[in-house]
Amino acid sequence: MGENFTSGGFRHRLPGCGRSGGGSAVLCDCLFPRLTASLRPVNKYRIGIDLGGTKIEGVVLDPTGHEVIRRRIATERERGYQHILKCLKSLHDGLLPAAKGAPTTFGIGTPGAISRRTGLLKNSNTVCMNGQPVKADLEKLLGRPIEIQNDANCFALAEALLGAGRGKNLVFGVIMGTGCGGGVVYKGEVFTGPQAIAGEWGHMSIDPQGPVCYCGQKGCVETFISGGGLENRYAAKFGARRPLKEIEAEYFAGEPRAVELMREFFDHFGRSLANLIDVLDPDVVVLGGGVSNFRALYTEGVAGVKKYVFTDVLETPIVKNQLGDSAGVLGAALVGI
Length: 337
Ligand SMILES: [Zn+2]
What we know:
Blueprint: H1 31-38, E1 45-51, E2 55-61, E3 67-74, H2 81-95, E4 104-110, E5 113-114, E6 121-122, H3 134-142, E7 147-150, H4 151-162, E8 170-176, E9 180-186, E10 189-191, H5 221-225, H6 227-238, H7 244-252, H8 256-280, E11 284-288, H9 300-308, E12 318-320, H10 327-335
Parallel strand pairs: 1-4, 4-7, 8-11, 11-12
Antiparallel strand pairs: 1-2, 2-3, 5-6, 8-9, 9-10
Bound molecules: zinc ion (ZN).
The site of zinc ion has 6 residues, from loops.
């Protein structure tokens, strides 16, 4: 995928779609009945932007849910807050003509959350954004109202309405990527809580003696089971850095260090998710982020959950996402105002 692209092919991976092929020229429409059936009717185009640490992706959906255009630019977060605002404005303005002058909604998904008390962004791992009035600044810059929602909440909403959580009442969406996020969707709506932190399971401490987390605590779930956490654990234990994909390959090849690390990982994954299931008892847990591609998560990882969960038989389905990398940007389009 290049810097700018239009895509529709991911839809063909959805279950129930008998079509093959893909690409921007031949759009499969199997996503759209789900979209229109699951949303309140809005006679508007929907613009969604997923603000990530390395890339910013935007999409426009037409009033029936068809994807009109998708674009991606680099975040360049090292250039600071004002630069990121400019990038968001330029992407928004570049997407807007796809709505052909019709009314639009606009939503942004980002790590962290807007504090209801101060209106400032908090908890973002793009730390130059923290403490900034992102929503107010962007509304001023663009001259329109916008909704800003946590990226894991956007992921959970998209999967709940369009992906692996369809038809379920209570969906917990988990992202295990660079960090570790989570989102709660109940009956098709994101549940955020009064402090906008609902679902932030990545910062539950499961070991007070554990590694220091950027949030200031020790032994957060994120420091053990995110992609970044796993790579750090490998480096701390064995004195060398290995990318996640290599650790996975070495695990399947039976390499003793990778096996030792992954045993620890499955135990931490099991403990973390069991704690969460004990509190929430969701109808389904949908996993996303780079670590969710790790096949053993659905066997050895789930066995770890069974070990710690407070029930005789674990009935909670723990499944892989269906929308892939598209969930975040689709969720952002779905939460727009
Ligand atoms: Zn933390």
